[in-house]
């Protein structure tokens, strides 16, 4: 089951990041009154990392029981551990290091980095899929993701699923990606199969360079040309955008 896209427009990228961080922290607090543990999927990208930094500086972060939160990534750049271009490195710098006393290290499930044992995106994708399956219930491939955050590129890519790329059709939970049009060329991504199991999928996008892709995705363009159109949650699909990114959609930059 998938859900209709809801759109919330914020005035600019900074307010978007602050509001998304607040929304995420409150969503985790709310969900913790119903179930535990929670599984949250982080994104890389400009607004995604800015959102994590905003969460780090929010007092609401202390309302979350981080010992009952598991952290995953929607995609990763296949680079050595600690590389500054890895989404994991940026997320640790922006938020996770600040949570080190509250969030158990074993709850942070990074996509394996390039090293002497893991030499291909496929090997990393397979190891990541095994880790995901360890926390899945029943016959699922992945844990029950509570909130799955996605950034979106100007070309409409989400996670590392790019327009026209064979990874768009990958089955199972994860896929290795070669020839990404955005550097670095080697990546690992959740598949649409995995993304669409999430309770809530939130796509965050800011800037006029994203306006065409936002308009296409909200108009349900084919996933082959606008991958973000395929990002749908089972309980809620939320588009969190700034006014510049919203400018091309019907209704323009006004709040939905
Ligand atoms: O490479 C990536 O890019 C997208 C979007 O990045 P942005 O800087 O245009 O916001 C991001 O969602 C993805 O996780 C990342 O690997």
Describe the structure.
Helices cover 27% and strands 18% of the residues. The protein has 256 residues and is of the alpha/beta class. It has a single domain (5-59, 66-246), classed as Rossmann fold (3-Layer(aba) Sandwich). α1 packs across α2 (46-56) and α2 (46-56) runs parallel beside α3 (87-94). The ligand O=C1O[C@H](COP(=O)(O)O)[C@@H](O)[C@H](O)[C@H]1O is lined by residues 43-48, 75, 77, 87, 150-153, 159-160, 182. Belongs to the glucosamine/galactosamine-6-phosphate isomerase family. 6-phosphogluconolactonase subfamily.
Q: Biggest sheet, open or closed, and with what strands and sense?
A: 6 strands, parallel
Bound molecules: ligand LXAUTJHC
Strand and helix order: EHEHEEHHEEEHEHEH
Number of helices: 7
Q: Architecture in CATH?
A: 3-Layer(aba) Sandwich
Estimate the global geometry from the Cα principal axes: globular
Number of domains: 1
Q: Report the CATH C-level class.
A: Alpha Beta
The CATH topology is: Rossmann fold
Strand order of the biggest β-sheet: 1-9-8-5-2-3
Count of distinct strands: 9
Provide the residue-averaged pLDDT.
96
Low-confidence stretches: none
Instruction: Specify the helix fraction band.
Output: 25-40%
Distance between the termini: 23 Å
How much of the sequence lies in strands comes to: 15-25%
Helix/strand/pairing class, anyone? alpha/beta
